[in-house]
Structures are given as structure tokens and as C-alpha cells.
Amino acid sequence: MSQVGEAVISADQRVVSVSAEKSVDGLSWGWTLDIVLSGSEPVTSDELGNVLKAARHAGDLDPGHVDVFATDEGGSSFDLTTAADGLGLRYSKVGAGISVPREMLDDTLGTGE
Question: 28 by DSSP, 3-state: which?
Fold first, then answer.
């Protein structure tokens, strides 16, 4: 899972740290990312897209979903829904984060690395 964390940190300059855990949702497994971002500005669609694409393609496994939770360095949660809507993603709201199915990641962000 360190490959996923490293990929996400490299994907966007605002990512300060990330915790990546394998998660299960029904019959699907995927990644749950807890990301700390620098600054207090809202997360942009480009930033969210970079993070999701990096997580989707990192490591040897093929995740069925990616769950993302993001906070600033003070621990305040970011609303990711505006950025996800800007990308045209279909997602589920999960607490302060979002869950995006793999097929939506591929359809919206592409299947290539």
C-alpha cells in the first residue's frame, strides 16, 4: 500500500501526507485514502482527478473503488463533492469523503496511466 501513498503524494503538490488502506465494499475491494493537503483553499477538480488517477493505477492490484477523505494540516475536512461534480464523477458521499467506483474512474479519467 506504500506504492499507493507514494503515487498520491507525487500526483499533486498540495498533498502533504496520505494514509492508504485496503477496504472492502460489498464484493469489491479498493483503497481508502486519508489525505492531508496544504492550504485551506477548496480542492479543485484537477487536484482531485490527479489523486484519484494516481490511486487507481498505483500498485499491482486493480481496485474496485477509491474512497477519499481530505483534511487540511489543522484537521478541518474538505468538501470533495464540488471537485467531483466538476469532473463529472458519479460518487457516493461517505461521511466527509467520497467513494468512487472503478468504472467511473475509468470512464471519467481514462484507463491509461
Answer: strand
